[in-house]
């Protein structure tokens, strides 16, 4: 086990929870720790690039994709979402308080060398293709995560 290694499972696509995951991840990386973020199930929506489309999806995969938020700008809040007004208010307050926005946090995470892994099994189940994801994301299964987690001193589930 290494005290300077951290892993975070990002299961949620709630904007506030995802922000917490990136604040912790970038904070640890800025302190010199090695960080791996493993995105699974709803957390995969964080990695979907709103500008990218995948070819060859089945009808059900297209329907599933249409029902989920595509990219960080579409993420709901876990509380007080109010049909999408809540996230807009949160973003307004973040800009007003000079808090880094989620797209900037993701860019910073990449610049700090944080490894972002998309769960291959969840991608299959949810019909998400690699070409839909933001650049720099690795694809891996549970063995990838468990290998990283077995070496880490801190493992979080968000």
Automatic annotation (TrEMBL):
**The keyword Calcium appears for this protein:** no
List where the protein spans the membrane. Answer: 20-47
| Cleaved signal peptide residues | none
- State the UniProt keywords alphabetically: Membrane, Transmembrane, Transmembrane helix
Keyword Membrane attributed:
yes
Q: Name one Pfam family in it.
A: DrsE_2
Protein name per Swiss-Prot or TrEMBL: Peroxiredoxin family protein
Q: Which organism is it from?
A: Caldicellulosiruptor diazotrophicus
């Amino acid at each position: 086990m290494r005290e300077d290694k951290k892993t975070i499972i990002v299961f949620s696509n709630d904007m506030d929870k995802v922000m917490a995951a990136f604040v912790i991840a970038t904070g640890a990386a800025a302190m010199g720790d090695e960080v791996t973020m493993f995105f699974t199930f709803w957390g995969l929506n964080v990695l979907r690039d709103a500008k990218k489309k995948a070819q060859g999806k089945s009808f059900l995969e297209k329907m599933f994709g249409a029902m989920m938020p595509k990219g960080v700008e579409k993420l709901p809040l876990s509380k007080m979402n109010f049909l999408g007004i809540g996230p807009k208010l949160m973003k307004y307050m973040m800009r007003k308080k000079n808090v880094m926005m989620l797209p900037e946090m993701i860019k910073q995470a990449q610049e700090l060398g944080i490894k972002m892994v998309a769960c291959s099994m969840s991608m299959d189940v949810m019909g998400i293709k690699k070409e839909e994801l933001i650049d720099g994301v690795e694809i891996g299964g549970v063995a990838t995560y468990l290998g990283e987690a077995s070496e880490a001193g801190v493992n979080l589930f968000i």
